[in-house]
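Side project, low priority. Logging it here so it doesn't get lost.
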Amino acid sequence: MFRFQNIELLWLLLLIPVMVVAHLLYSRRKRKELETFGDLELLEPLMPNRSSVRPHLKFALLMLSLTLLIFALARPQYGTKEETIKRQGIEMMVALDISNSMLAEDVAPSRLDKAKQMVTSMINKFVDDKVGLVVFAGDAFVQLPITCDYVSAKTFLQNIDPSLIPAQGTAIGKAIETSLRSFGGESEASRAIILITDGENHEDDAIGAAKKAKEAGVKIMVVGIGKPEGSPIPVPGSNNFMKDRQGNVVVSRLNEEMCREIAAAGGGIYVRADNTNSAVRALEHEIEQLSKSEIETKVFTDYNEQYQSFVLIALLLLIIEFFIFSRKNKRLSKINLFERQ
């Protein structure tokens, strides 16, 4: 397994395009300064040592060296040993509604963004628990298999948007069934499904799926996100709102009754998310009540540092750059290895 120990340092790579733009602007300015003296073709014989290629080559070598040094600072590592570690925790699947109605902004900054913030907040407090992610609209699929890799969980979470599932709708029952299958085989760990939805456009037997989950020993906690009075749905990339076939603006409303029925059938709680953190606190309190059992997890425990290769290549490029002159060398330019003596 390959990873960067200090992955946050990769943000320094953003300096590269900035420096490239600055270099191009500087080169353009130098060229314009020369053009003030006359035509460049006529001026070329007067500047026999000038090179138009070498400065760019030197700059390219410097940028490549800088890129490699940034990678080295981020400490690339390769996992060489996998071990099974036993931990005390729970197993939790998050089923997140990503239908277009989740773009409504009756909860700031939007229903979907608020849901992401809530899940991220909960993951930040996990220690030895497992978490997985299922997304659903008119269909449902596993976005992230259940894992203890919280960094990956938060990364996958931030990349979620309604475009992941073309089929619109809210197949809550299918989301519960998909989450239930994602737990895998039998385990002594307590299991829970956190269902985050506005409960709109219900299409299948969510109550029946919730009852099956309860029978399997999985508790379902439902987070209703939005407001009962509803809100229009923004069209991404515009200032307009979604409309129905008659041209009327669609208003998406939180279906609290459906959410409560699913939570009751699943033996869990229902909480409504608003612009406060009350929903997160209620979920965290409910999760704390679940008994933590021994969970086996396979992790890489030994990592070999790989930064040395990046540093060596960067130093080699810097040495090459040092010996490349910005101007042509008069003596070297007179050498012709193929001239007959």
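Brief comment: The chain has two domains: 2-79+304-333, 91-291.
Revisit when time allows.
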